[in-house]
């Protein structure tokens, strides 16, 4: 019997919920769906926020996970998907959310939008899933299964942050904060691919050095008291057109007041360091503060075309084997020692 990793609620006096491996029936697709046999999945910090109870509208006993690659195991009447030329046996990526088609501003109906995993949209940490046919996309042929599993959520988030929101172009100076995580590394690779001058920050000097292998021109340790001055020394005093940030922490004030050019864009896709006090200089300096997360189905397709055109390979930090290893992989992600995505192969598919 197949298995899946579900979100198990714990008593209110226990902070953490559980990621529990359970036996589940093999799902049957409806006429507008396809059955996908999962080959590999990838973790996201969202998984940790869910397990910590810090995520809205949780659906307990639902399957966890947003990122997966699989093969089409069953189609209605075994037909090809006419709009995408997909057929049984094809490798596919699964759109990591549903309910957002093409609106560049945000989901067309926010009440029907959901990110996969622990929500009204069941996740992909399973041997099998059923998915709307419109949410399946061919995997770029040059990517391995492990690389492809790392792409969907982080790759989409970075693509929208950089190009829909930040409108990054060749020759611009771009700062990516907190390098090492999945979205930040994709943002670095994407910006470098279009010819931007990319710099990074981290509290780990080794991560800054590794980032240079993926296109960073340099970086600074954000724990240094004068990190912003060190950064501008690296650029010869040139400030930044766009900052891609996931922290929203204490350093945001320095970014808005001294790192960005007049009229620059501060694009935030997370809040891992909490909130910050918004001073007055940002509007005097014409700064745009732009919130973003995830992206539409149309942007997902654009992202796949982009990574294929530029031959971008996701950075995979660590690989675990088997759905039963997901709790260990989540703890590894908590320890924040990884550089790149954490991927789990789904071995031994059970019928």
Automatic annotation (TrEMBL):
Domain Enoyl reductase (ER): 9-344
Coiled coil: none
UniProt-recorded name of the protein: Enoyl reductase (ER) domain-containing protein
Entry-linked Pfam families: ADH_N, ADH_zinc_N
Molecular function terms from GO: oxidoreductase activity
Classification lineage: Eukaryota, Fungi, Fungi incertae sedis, Mucoromycota, Mortierellomycotina
InterPro entries recorded: ADH-like_C, ADH-like_N, ER, GroES-like_sf, NAD(P)-bd_dom_sf, Zinc_ADH-like
Residue spans crossing the bilayer: none
Organism: Actinomortierella ambigua
SUPFAM superfamilies: GroES-like, NAD(P)-binding Rossmann-fold domains
